[in-house]
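DM from R.C. (forwarded with permission)

"hey, sorry to bug you on a friday — could you get me a structure for this? deadline for the figure draft is monday and I only need the backbone to look sensible"
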Amino acid sequence: MSIVKPNNNTISAITALPAAIPTGKILQTVTGETTTNTQITSTSYTDTSLTANITPSATSSKILILVSQNVQMERQTYEINTFLQLLRDSTTISIKTVGVGTGAANGQGCRDTFAIAHLDEPSTTSQITYKTQGKVNSTSDSGTCRFQEGGSRSEIVLIEIEG
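My reply, with the result:
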């Protein structure tokens, strides 16, 4: 039997943090929310009414974007997929998909929540608009999606982190 002795090093013995641990300070937080019911019956990306603006204080700043967005989707036959893209101004920086279907010719529908966490490095001190856009995979057989159905609240949080 061997006895393991505890390591008696103190916190003062640590001289540097590992590179994977962020050390920047939070400089500002901006929140955007919407309860506007936005119906989309298109296979092209369309604004969902969720948006927020931020003006970084330094070009080295990073922006952590957190999105929680409600969606209801339905189609009379087969499957339905809804896509959500996150944009910085007009540039796509993230895309997510949710869907439902059995492959059978009966109506499909579901409610879900898109969750996005994205760390962006915009390299600017100009105002940035972050927003989401949605689309469906098919409009045949009444394919549609509704964001913020029934007045449910969706939210986008922008956190500027010192670079």
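R.C.: lifesaver. DSSP finds no helices and ten strands in the chain.
me: no worries. Residues 1-14 have pLDDT under 50 and may be disordered.
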